[in-house]
Amino acid sequence: MTEAAMSTEMVQLLTPEGERREHDEFTFERPDEDLPAWLRDMVLARRFDTEATALQRHGELGLWPPVLGQEAAQVGSAHALGDLDVVFPTYREHAVFLTLGLPFQQLLALFRGSDAGAWDHLDRFRNYQIIIGSQTLHATGYAMGLQLDGLVGNQDGPNAATIAYHGDGASSQGDVNEAYVFAASYNAPVVFFCQNNQWAISEPIALQSRIPLYQRAHGFGFPGVRVDGNDVLAVHAVTRWALERAHRGEGPTFIEAFTYRMGAHTTSDDPTKYRADEETRSWAGRDPITRLTTHLRTAGLIDDAWLAGLDEEARQFGADIRAAIPTLRDLTMDELFDNVHAENTVALEAQRREHAAWAAEEE
Question: pTM for this one?
């Protein structure tokens, strides 16, 4: 697809040069005065990502999936969420997690192997899923439960929906396509938010789909929209629209956030083995943080002093992240058994006793 063709079918409200533009169907309805806080969210998410990558290189984390380049897609969509909406993430939604104000220590503990995902705040943000695409089924089932609970289609509220984040590679998984079928069949209030970062590990999107991903949604019977995933304004506008559809009981929506994974798939990956340097350099010119910074400077909403203050906050945040590592405590096996079900089963209690007996023999 040519650059011209891509631009005509992709929702964009802020160009790579930081200039505002209009769209016939989608508008950004928040005041521009909100945007410096969104830039802060993106910058701190990038600092967190940088620190976590360095911690993995130093042996403090077992693995880390970078989010570099995808900050606008995540921050813009996170700010569109309502109070009752629930996030079903992959393993890369660090910026969504932080934007919702959740404790970053939980992310570090998971990738350090300290807590096995025994997280708090699961009412807003469910556990990371390492199994590719499984969270889309969870999100669809939960959304169907919201219908049964009467939390959909209320004129005066309250209304709720789910949002399932997944990547372009996950769109090829059977679980994900089954989730699309169930969501369409039951008109479930779920938003499928696909971050098309162009690469499913080492496989380019061209090998997975002969048509743009958002067009696939029509075959399942619900709307699909492609949005510039490096444009935080457009991402917010499209996600808010999709969530409002779900709240009204109009069913699922597929959003393709067209973005780019600037770094490796995970810290065990070397993208130089399969990606051309020219491609990465081209996408660097569409950087979401630079784009928003340029716009806010032009609008007079930030200046050098503001940015210096943000740099200092990011520096202190980095220090806090590093300082958190020695405070992380490994959960005991008893605690892990307690976190499997709300009420333990007979079979699980038998496994607990079996493990306890084995551990006693090892001592």
Answer: 0.93
